[in-house]
Structures are given as C-alpha cells and as structure tokens.
C-alpha cells in the first residue's frame, strides 16, 4: 500500500483489531501482525536493507496505524527513519509521509515541545514544503495554540493514514476544548 493507508475505517465495517476484517475474509490483526513481525525479523537477521525491507516496514507501520497499535508503529517508524536515510531504497513521497507521521506521533504521545521542535528542525526545506508535512505542521500548530475548530477541519482533510494518528489525541483535544468553553462561561 504505497503512499496510502491499509484501509478506510469509515467504510471498512468491523475493525481487524476487534477480530473482524476490512472485508469478511481478512485475517485478524494479530495474525497479520505476527507475519509482518516475522518478516521484519528475518530481514534484520539477514541484514537485508533494500526496497523490499522499506516496503515491509512501511506497510507494517500503516497497518499498525490503522489498528491503533502505537507501540509497534513507533518501532517500525524508528527503523523506517534509518532506512529512509539510505540512498535509492525509498521514494521521496514515502519520506515525506513518514516525516508527517513522526510529527503527528509526537503530538499524539504528548512529547515535549523541544522534541517536536527538534523533529521540525530536522526536516529539509523540501519536506517542509510538501503538502503532507505542511498538513502535519498545521495540526501541531492548531493543537499547540488551542485552535480546536482548525484541528478538526484538518482531521477531515488528513492525507494517507494521518487521520488515525489525529484520532489518537482527538478525545484529549475535545476535552481541552470543553474545558476552555466551560471556563469562558
């Protein structure tokens, strides 16, 4: 699933995480997770760093996002970051997509302002100008400034799997917005 997400939760029906699949014949999430984890382990043990390695890690990361498995997503993301630094084994589009996920993951996990700033500082100017990364930067800004209306507008226009990361902190943002509204009255 290059440059996209594993599925569309709004149209998918039961979640693979709940034992159902995106379509009735889809295997449960844990089975797919085990298969991908096994493939990743084989690639690591055999020191294979190729387009296949990148594809497996990227697919697994997107699959984790779709299913809300933040810990496993973070493991994949760490390796993806390293793989993306190697020349010729990934697309520029994928670099930008996962740079955006990195920013959103930092917001979702409530990482320090310094950590989010470091991630932004590490981006190239090409990355900062890319629409997917710009979207993530706008989400971070809306979150940090308390512009909840803008945050939820951005959620509706989220590219690739970004919406799943935004959903990870959407309830927290709703509660913050409610607290602000209550204090205003």
3D shape: globular
Give the structural class: mainly alpha
Mean pLDDT: 87
Helical content class: over 70%
State the main characteristics.
mainly alpha; 185 residues; 0% strand; 71% helix
Architecture overview:
It is a single chain. With 185 residues, this protein is an all-alpha fold. It contains ten helices and no strands. Helix 3 runs antiparallel to helix 4, helix 4 packs antiparallel against helix 5 and helix 8 runs antiparallel to helix 9. About 9% of the residues have low confidence.
Quick rundown:
This protein is mainly alpha-helical. The chain has helices at 9-12, 29-45, 51-67, 70-84, 92-108, 113-121, 125-129, 131-145, 148-156, 162-184. α5 runs antiparallel to α6 (113-121) and α8 runs antiparallel to α9.
Secondary structure elements and their pairing?
Layout: H1 9-12, H2 29-45, H3 51-67, H4 70-84, H5 92-108, H6 113-121, H7 125-129, H8 131-145, H9 148-156, H10 162-184
Helix pairs in contact: 2-3, 3-4, 4-5, 5-6, 5-8, 5-10, 8-9, 9-10
């Amino acid at each position: 699933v290059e440059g996209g997400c594993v599925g569309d939760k709004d149209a998918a029906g039961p979640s693979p995480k709940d034992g159902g699949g995106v379509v009735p014949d889809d295997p449960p999430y844990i089975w797919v997770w085990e298969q991908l984890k096994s493939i990743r382990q084989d690639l690591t043990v055999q020191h294979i760093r190729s387009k296949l390695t990148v594809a497996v890690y990227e697919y697994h990361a997107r699959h984790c996002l779709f299913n809300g498995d933040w810990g496993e997503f973070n493991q994949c993301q760490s390796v993806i970051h390293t793989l993306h630094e190697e020349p010729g084994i990934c697309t520029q589009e994928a670099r930008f997509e996962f740079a955006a996920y990195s920013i959103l993951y930092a917001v979702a996990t409530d990482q320090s302002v310094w950590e989010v700033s470091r991630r932004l500082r590490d981006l190239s100017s090409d990355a900062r100008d890319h629409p997917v990364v710009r979207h993530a930067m706008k989400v971070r800004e809306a979150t940090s400034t308390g512009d909840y209306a803008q945050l939820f507008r951005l959620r509706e226009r989220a590219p690739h799997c970004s919406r799943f990361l935004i959903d990870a902190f959407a309830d927290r943002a709703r509660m913050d917005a409610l607290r602000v509204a209550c204090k205003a009255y």
